[in-house]
């Protein structure tokens, strides 16, 4: 997680395939504008046949989703920008 210009950036903790939903064509875990709480699931990264949950560390509004669904992401690549809210 990185904080810059009032945004909290959620980054990839590992290399793998980024998924926005639990199944192909399913409802995304979050969309731009959603309010999330700490622990809220944002996405999944599949690595070596294991599904790894990506969760929010702060309460915030989803400002941006960077990767496309099914995109291979690198370690520390930005995934989401969150705007902290009280």
From TrEMBL:
Record organism: Streptomyces sp. gb1(2016)
Entry-linked Pfam families: Biotin_lipoyl
GO cellular component terms, A-Z: acetyl-CoA carboxylase complex
PANTHER family to which the protein is assigned, alphabetical: OXALOACETATE DECARBOXYLASE ALPHA CHAIN (PTHR45266)
Biological role stated in the UniProt entry: This protein is a component of the acetyl coenzyme A carboxylase complex; first, biotin carboxylase catalyzes the carboxylation of the carrier protein and then the transcarboxylase transfers the carboxyl group to form malonyl-CoA.
Keywords: Biotin, Fatty acid biosynthesis, Fatty acid metabolism, Lipid biosynthesis, Lipid metabolism
Lipoyl-binding domain span: 7-83
Cited InterPro entries: AcCoA_biotinCC, Biotin_Carboxyl_Carrier/Decarb, Biotin_lipoyl, Single_hybrid_motif
GO molecular function: acetyl-CoA carboxylase activity
Taxonomic superkingdom: Bacteria
GO biological processes: fatty acid biosynthetic process
Protein name per UniProt: Biotin carboxyl carrier protein of acetyl-CoA carboxylase
Pathway where it operates: Lipid metabolism; fatty acid biosynthesis
UniProt entry tagged with the keyword Transmembrane: no
């Amino acid at each position: 997680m990185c904080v810059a210009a009032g945004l909290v950036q959620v980054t990839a903790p590992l290399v793998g395939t980024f998924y926005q939903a639990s199944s192909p064509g399913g409802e995304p875990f979050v969309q731009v504008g959603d309010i999330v709480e700490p622990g809220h699931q944002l996405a999944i990264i599949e690595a070596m046949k294991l599904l790894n949950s990506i969760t929010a560390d702060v309460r915030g509004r989803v400002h941006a989703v960077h990767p496309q669904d099914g995109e291979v992401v690198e370690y520390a690549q930005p995934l989401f920008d969150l705007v902290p809210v009280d």
